[in-house]
Structure prediction request, 177 residues.
Amino acid sequence: MSRIGKKAVPVPAGVTANIANGTLSVKGPKGTLQLAMRDEITYTIEDGGISVQPANDGKQARAFWGMQRTLVQNLVTGVTDGFTKKLLITGVGYRAAAQGRNLKLQLGYSHDVNIDVPEGLEVKTPDNTTVEISGSDKQKVGQLAAEIRRWRKPEPYKGKGIKYDGEFIFRKEGKKK
Prediction:
């Protein structure tokens, strides 16, 4: 039994949820998000919340139950507060600059890395070693952060590279004479 799936997702004031044509759409102050509904799960909109229950007693239905409830929670959180990921750049000469819908990174390569920012996301660079990605879709925010990080993953000897805020990099000791 899913413990998280038993709780209904609270819908705050100013947010509306609709079920139509196999999709759950949630509309709020930060936009509209949609989720394709699974056949193994039943979704009901009650007063003040969205309830997610398995449609049958099968193993697939129980497996999807908690995950689908979390996805519904992410929709509601996304249209009310939004999601933010913060990346920290460490290394001599490594820097970032947001220019409109582009992010320009200097990461020690012979060329600059230009990354296009997808629609619905916003990238800010408060200083030249910090990148903040924000948007209403948690999956898109995390995907863009992972694509940026992939250009220069943090290495364990000096800690140079792009890491998430709060990420711990296990440091190794170098060669000894």
